[in-house]
Design brief:
Shape: globular
Number of helices: 13
Helix content: 25-40%
Radius of gyration: 24 Å
Length: about 450
């Protein structure tokens, strides 16, 4: 049996195991999924995972091989409504647990990038938490949902995520949640790498309390507001900053008045979870702050707790550059896996589809990562053509009626692209609107 077939069988085994006790994932236990239907629990999950960019009718016809007795759209909607919100997340995490990430930095650090990306879906004014009224960019209005995932940079795999309606998005809280519930393997230390938008003393404290490392980019003005104005004035520096965080401005209540210059007042309206007025009034934290040059006139700031004796400034610069992998994953998730095309107007079902797309992405990367790419005398080293590889893996995943599977490993090894170092392209910003349900064809 090929490795790709083993991975697929592992996923189907989890679905079969869930189907043996559907009451754990049903809105009405004991009633839902109790009758014999075309779309039973197992078939429903496989259908949701295999759906691509077509309309619901197109996807049902493809899944049932264009049989005249294909389940109706209404049957799909009714069966999908029976699933609980944790059914797809459970499947995602259960599948991930079978294939732990083995690519580590220095054999002990797991590089986990965090970032947010918004997904536009069909206009639904009734959902006020995600709806944007018509403006200069759109005449009809639109809805968006915000995804904040943890992404293993070296293994190219999503580890967890938080989904929020875009009008109530809180990336600080989302990252704190992800850090708190992430469970690393013994002997492995996670390093959380995040862009601007995640610089928060609360985020730093959550990572410290979980015995983890972090590095977060911050703008000049944000860094001064966060840490104070007594930072070095040089263009480049690497310094250790000690702060004592407190909710009180009263100097009489300070436990260490001799360290007056280290005190940092946290406004009551700012979230910080580790100061309890009844138990703990102060929270000491030590941070490493770096500023380095990235271009002729450009500089970047990094706030971290990476030990200087093990991580130099150049190495931190290199690690932060690796964070771009999560940006590439968003592009592949939306345009190759198809997470920009949804099959509902309701946010609850949009979230289900996002978890399903993350699962499919991991399914593809696990198989792709097993392929062996040989240079074969080429001028440049080669890498996998991920777009072609993911499409092949997804086609293989969707086969379920006894069709002959393709040789996935050979397809991946044959479709490669050259690696050209130092090639850069300007980042393109586009405004995207949802694709109509009616005019889809995959």
């Amino acid at each position: 049996m090929s490795f790709a077939a083993q991975v697929k069988n592992s996923l189907l085994h989890i679905i079969s195991s869930m189907a043996s006790h559907p009451e754990d994932f049903s809105m009405h236990p004991g009633t839902d999924f109790s009758r014999n239907r075309k779309l039973d629990f197992s078939t429903l999950l496989q259908l949701i995972i295999s759906m691509e960019a077509g309309t619901v009718r197109d996807e049902l016809l493809k899944f049932f091989s264009y049989d005249k007795d294909t389940a109706s759209n209404s049957a799909f909607f009714q069966q999908r409504a029976k699933l609980t919100d944790d059914a797809l997340p459970y499947l995602f995490h259960a599948f991930n647990s079978l294939y732990p990430c083995s690519s580590l930095y220095k054999n002990k650090y797991q590089l986990l990038a965090a970032d947010g990306s918004s997904f536009t879906f069909t206009r639904n004014p009734l959902d006020g938490d995600s709806y944007f009224a018509p403006d200069g960019k759109t005449t009809n209005g639109y809805n968006q949902i915000h995804l904040i995932p943890l992404f293993d940079i070296l293994s190219k795999r999503f580890m967890d995520c938080v989904v929020q309606p875009v009008r109530k998005k809180n990336e600080f809280r989302a990252l704190c949640t992800l850090i708190d519930r992430y469970r690393n393997a013994p002997g492995i230390i996670p390093i959380y790498i995040a862009d601007r938008g995640f610089h928060s003393l609360n985020v730093f404290a959550h990572a410290v309390e979980q015995h983890s490392l972090f590095m977060v980019r911050a703008a000049d003005i944000k860094m001064q507001r966060l840490l104070g104005t007594d930072l070095p004035v040089q263009n480049c520096f690497d310094v250790q900053i000690n702060r004592i965080l407190t909710r009180s401005n009263s100097k009489k209540k300070r436990l260490h008045p001799e360290l007056a210059d280290q005190y940092k007042f946290i406004c009551p309206n700012v979230a910080f979870d580790y100061i309890d007025p009844e138990k703990q009034t102060e929270y000491p934290i030590s941070l490493r702050v770096l500023r380095f040059k990235i271009s002729e006139y450009g500089y970047e700031n990094i706030i971290t707790n990476l030990p200087p004796e093990e991580f130099s400034a150049d190495e931190i610069k290199h690690l932060y550059n690796l964070r771009w992998g999560i940006e590439i994953s968003f592009r592949e998730l939306k345009h190759v896996i198809g997470a920009s095309n949804f099959h509902s107007k309701k946010r609850r079902y949009i979230e289900m589809e996002l978890w399903a797309r993350l699962l499919v992405y991991n399914f593809c990367t696990i198989i792709t990562g097993h392929a062996v790419i040989r240079r074969r005398g080429r001028k440049h080293p080669l890498q996998v053509n991920y777009s072609a590889a993911y499409k092949a893996c997804r086609h293989f995943l969707c086969l379920h009626n006894g069709e002959s599977p393709p040789d996935i490993e050979s397809l991946i090894e044959k479709n490669t692209l050259p690696i050209r170092p130092d090639r850069k392209y300007a980042r393109q910003h586009r405004f995207r609107v949802p694709v109509s349900f009616t005019y889809r064809f995959a």
